[in-house]
Amino acid sequence: MENILIDNAKVMAKGQITLPKDIREALGVRTGDRVALIRQNDQVIMMNAAVYGMKMLQTAMKGEAEKAGIASDEDVSAMIAAMRAKDDEYSGLSSRLESCVIKARRPAGSFSQKMCRKGEAEKQRRVRAIIND
After folding, report:
1. The pTM is what?
2. What is the DSSP string of 7-27?
3. Which residues make beta-bridge pairs with 40?
4. Average pLDDT over residues 108-119
5. Residues 29/20, Cβ–Cβ less than 8 Å
6. 43-48 and 35-40 strand pairing
7. Which residue range forms the structural domain that includes residue 35?
8. What is the per-residue pLDDT across 51-95, written as a single tens digit (0 to 9) for each?
9. Which residue, 34, 62, 90, sits at the end of a domain?
10. Domain check: are 74 and 119 in the same one?
11. Number of other residues whose CB lies within 10 A of the CB of residue 9
């Protein structure tokens, strides 16, 4: 059965109230935390804002995992690993392109400049492939 806690608070001149300690503890609210106030007809529901935000996110995302083909924790781990690998590949290409820019500033005809030009088309193709995935 749900634990019901009833308490009251006085509304001050600026519309402020002090939440009783037992209510703060039940909501897990500490000094500086935010609360969500939800009005339903003639009632107001108060929730820890972080908890409310998570519930709203869960409601909005319901069914999305199935649509994306995610059925287990292993699927989530595999998706994260793939995304990290793609980020790592992009970062590696980015640093290599940066070094080509630096080498391109060297005198025309230098060995490093020729090598950058030779690999530039392949690097550009790989960057486009990563971006378009």
Report:
1. 0.43
2. ------TTS-----HHHHHHH
3. 43
4. 55
5. no
6. antiparallel
7. 1-62
8. 888 888 888 888 888 888 888 888 888 888 888 787 766 666 666
9. 62
10. yes
11. 11
